[in-house]
Amino acid sequence: MSNYRRAFIPGGTWFFTVNLLQRHNNDLLIREIGLLRETVKRVRARYPFQIDAWVLLPEHLHCVWTLPPGDADFSIRWRLIKSGFSRALPKTERRSDVRKMAGERGIWQRHYWEHFIRDDVDYERHVDYVHANPLKHGYVKRVADWPYSTFHRYVSKGIYPQDWCGDVDSSVGGDE
What is the DSSP letter of 158? Predict the structure, then answer.
């Protein structure tokens, strides 16, 4: 058994990768984007956090969040987002016996990748990674062509030019 521990840093900024359990030929997150947005909105109303960057792909997502001062509990937020999204979907997915015995759905991978953002360079690197991810995976030829991303907010604020293509180096993040 692993001795896995999460670091909890109040008011911290975090990079996350969250995957669906079945990633092959699965476009659930795009098909159900309205449900995911509503679920995130409900969780943020109860447990606030700032969304610094977010990209939604068909079967996984990446984001950078900043928690409020004094608050370090990103786990409850992910638990509520994942469970709220799953509960709203019809039970049509295949579930293993282990998941059935645990009363779990077969929507999300149990764990997610998190990385504490250490400084401004780390922050920029991860925000760039988030925004370049649709290009990295071959969904688009230009980052600006992917609609499910905060990239467009960054363009409107003058942070990125419209034709920004980003660094598609896959050395950052948890996309195994």
Answer: T
What span, in angstroms and rounded, lies between the C-alpha atoms of 167 and 65? Answer: 21
pLDDT in tens, the chain (176 residues): 556 567 778 999 999 999 999 888 899 999 999 999 999 999 999 999 999 999 999 999 999 999 999 999 999 999 999 999 999 998 887 878 887 787 778 899 989 999 999 999 999 999 999 999 999 999 999 999 999 999 999 999 999 999 997 555 545 555 54
Angle at 131 between CA 129 and CA 136, to 5 degrees: 65
Backbone conformation region of residue 158, classed left if phi is above 0, alpha if psi is from -120 to 50, else beta: left
Is 85 in contact with 39 (CB distance < 8 Å)?
A: yes
Catalytic residue among 129, 148, 154, 160: 148
Q: 37-65: string of b/e by CB count within 10 Å (b at 16+)?
A: eebbeebbeebebeebbbbbbbbbbbbbb
Whether 28 and 83 have beta carbons less than 8 Å apart is answered as: no
23 contacts 57 by C-beta, under 8 angstroms:
no
Helix spans in the chain (H): 28-31, 33-46, 74-87, 97-102, 120-136, 151-156
148 is a catalytic site residue: yes
